[in-house]
């Protein structure tokens, strides 16, 4: 368990990129357990690298259920 505040801006900080069932992405501190409803994408990197991954992969901000309802995906 972490006993100090996490510095999201530290160049040494490491993050996981998570995804939920609606295909929405999130950054998560690497030393914390993944919260319920979220899964790891396999990306473990700096904030900058994680942000880049999310920007490249999360191209439609709409939740998956809304995309299906509107686009018949």
Q: Key features?
A:
73 residues; alpha+beta; Rubredoxin-like; 3 strands; elongated
Could you give the topology of this structure?
Blueprint: E1 15-20, E2 25-29, E3 38-45, H1 47-57, H2 64-71
Antiparallel strand pairs: 1-2, 1-3
What does this structure look like?
With 73 residues, the protein is α+β, with helices and mostly antiparallel strands. It has one domain (15-71): Structural Genomics, Unknown Function 30-nov-00 1gh9 Mol_id (Rubredoxin-like). Helices cover 26% and strands 26% of the residues. It contains two helices and three strands. The chain has helices at residues 47-57, 64-71; strands spanning 15-20, 25-29, 38-45. The chain has a three-stranded antiparallel β-sheet, with helices on one face. A hairpin with a 4-residue loop joins strand 1 (15-20) and strand 2 (25-29).
Number of helices: 2
According to CATH, what is the class?
A: Alpha Beta
Radius of gyration: 14 Å
The CATH architecture term is: Alpha-Beta Complex
- H/E element sequence: EEEHH
* Topology-level CATH name: Rubredoxin-like
Range of helix content: 25-40%
Mean pLDDT over the full residue set: 89
Protein name: MbtH family protein
Pfam families: MbtH (PF03621)
Domain MbtH-like: 6-56
Organism: Catenulispora yoronensis
Summarize the structure.
With 73 residues, the protein is of the alpha+beta class.
